[in-house]
Amino acid sequence: MACSCVEVGIRKSYRQADVIFAGTLVSKTQVGGLVRYIFRVKHLYKGSAQTDTLSVQSSGSSAACGSSFNLDTDYLIYSWLRDVKPQSILDLGPQVSPYLYTSICSRNKPDRFANFYEKAVLKLL
């Protein structure tokens, strides 16, 4: 079964997301079918962060709508909180529940492709 996404506008994506931020990918770890990405946050559009880094999980498979990010690249990330810990997430080390999750169906993109309009709307919401 392949991943199938419906394109969603900025405002609806904002309402659906729990945390939206721009940041640089500094680390990624894959265990089983999941990947943990650690981002150094540059700008927080929605939500809160206890430190200057955020950990975001995603499926390791694009067929399961998993996101793929490159190290040392800036991204705009839309993520949401999940309460259920899949078994393979436990193998990634200590977890705080709930944790952040994202997928290719979010509006994630390299920060250089996030246009002025999208960033302006996010700042106003």
Could you name the CATH class?
Mainly Beta
Q: Element order, helices and strands?
A: HEEEEHEEH
Work out the helix count: 3
- How far is it from the N-terminal to the C-terminal residue, by CA? 36 Å
Tally the structural domains. 1
| CATH architectural type | Beta Barrel
Sheet with the most strands, sense and barrel status: 5 strands, mixed, barrel
**Beta-strand content bin:** 35-45%
As an assembly, this protein is single chain
Uncertain runs:
88-92
**Overall 3D form:** globular
Structure, explained:
- The protein is an alpha+beta fold and 125 residues long.
- It is built from three helices and six strands.
- Strand 1 and strand 2 form a beta hairpin.
Defining key terms:
about 120 residues; alpha+beta; OB fold (Dihydrolipoamide Acetyltransferase, E2P); five-stranded mixed beta barrel; about 15% helix; globular
Describe how the helices and strands are arranged:
Blueprint: H1 10-16, E1 19-31, E2 34-46, E3 53-59, E4 74-82, H2 87-90, E5 99-101, E6 109-110, H3 116-124
Parallel strand pairs: 3-5
Antiparallel strand pairs: 1-2, 1-4, 2-3, 4-5, 4-6
Task: Give a brief rundown of this model.
Helices cover 16% and strands 38% of the residues. By secondary structure, the protein is an alpha+beta fold.
